[in-house]
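Late entry, written up from scratch paper. The run itself happened at the end of the previous shift, but nothing got recorded in the book at the time, so transcribing now.
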Amino acid sequence: MSDASLPAAEAVESHVRAFFEGHSVDVVDCDLGPERRGTVPDLRVLVVGPGPRTDSWAYVTAGCWAASESDGHGLEFVMTAPVRDQRFIDLMAMIAYYHCGGHRLDVEHSMPIGEPWIPGSTCDHLLISLPYLHGPGLEQCPLPGGDTRILWTLPVTTAEIEFRRRHGHEALEQLFDEAGIIPTDPFRASVA
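Output as recorded:
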């Protein structure tokens, strides 16, 4: 790990461990391969097991901030899933590469996955949103010389992305609230 990114990654990890106190937290180093390694050279995914705060798994990037911060501000990402699976670690690495590789994700952005989130799911995109399942306590992460926001990557359907393009992000989030979606259910019905 480079000297510049070590304090930031450690601060993100410390923040996640404190927020998810009582949960197991595993650190998985992600090597994006020789052609992509330089984009997010020190990427880790923090895998948070179920515990007192939530009965789901959480996958949090640590390394995006160091690869893409601007004036001390940057982003990391969290995905919530029903199980522990390498698939979600790989998706978090894909999000990190997409974001740090020049696409600069932020709230109200989306990213195509190119296949179902989980085999058999109709969710094939990720919507970047505030981490409603966890709140501002997880979202706001102070770092040495700056801060990072940890944003939620919510699996959504193509129809939901099309609805958002026509009616706006808030209208889609309102549909999610009205339908009472379970965001960790890969087989949930599309709200649009």
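The mean pLDDT is 91.
(Scratch paper discarded after transcription.)
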